[in-house]
Protein: Metallophosphoesterase
Amino acid sequence: MFVLIPALLLALPWWTLVWAPTGGTGTLFWIGTAVVAALFACLPVAMFLGHGPAQSDPAVIVGDALLGVSWVFFAWSVIGVFVRGALTVIGVDDPARPVAAGVAITALALTGWGVYEARRVPRVRTVDVAIRGLAPGLDGLRMVVVTDTHYAALNRVRWSEKVVDVVNSLEPDIACHAGDLADGSVEKRQTQVDPLGKVVAPLGRFYITGNHEYFGDAQGWIDYMAALGWQPLHNEHRTLTRDGDRLVIAGIDDPTGRGLPGHGPDLPAALTGADPDLPVVLLAHQPKQIADAVAAGVALQISGHTHGGQIWPFHYLVRLDQPVVAGLSRHANNTQLYTSRGTGFWGPPLRVFAPSEITVLVLHPEPA
Structure:
């Protein structure tokens, strides 16, 4: 896998940018081929050292960056193939060179823009959500959602502090982290996570595990977030009260947790003891957990996981696995699902046509 993926990602860009415009001869051909060969040698080594047993942070940074750049060039090389075919059909002579130039310029520009989009403080997205059965005292309740922060090899302490400043400026009643907090152990990533302890939300701060916690130390992160003052919802719920009216907020584990004793999603357990007449807001990391939410009559599920695709056109592949990639959607039994594009990024430090977000969900009673 470490060799096959780089081969697939680099072969088409090599053909589009190197072989086709040069005819397989000349100085530019050999320079381009040498660059692609170097990338082919470097990428699998960096990915293995970073994500294999060694868990080398410098290798993660190099490997993930090369993977992201390779994906951008691959995607636009695919488009270049179709453009070249169209130009040939309409009678353009030797379209290989202008196509190669167009692909190279576009991919380089989008790579630069994608790095900026990934590293910037996310934009705020405000969404009004009508909740059936929501009592008048809870009208206008503000839930601020961050998710998929993926604190990892790149040290983003300052970014984390700025995210917390934005969250607090939004004056949340409730703050939520919907999983994929960090990649790596508490010992390696805690300094990046520590600013979350400064989030202020009078009705509570709630956290659930995502799949990436289960690639590392899920229980360690549950315990650490609790130590920071967040309430982990490990297949459990809380009943919140404002102005005499109540709301249930529940959280379930990511499905990946089934491999760890005592973990894995259990919505019936999460709702045990909850007043069945109260609306339920559920934190569930993956959108496809909506099937269980619908069966349980949940009013609103909040998820992340998809990153909105993160690097176009990857969202088409995400859609094969998840029912929704981003935004507010309505499902059976009047259950709604909000899928965040995520606050951080995973792996390649790029976001192309899938901007990150800090989400404000403003709850209102649903009209009769």
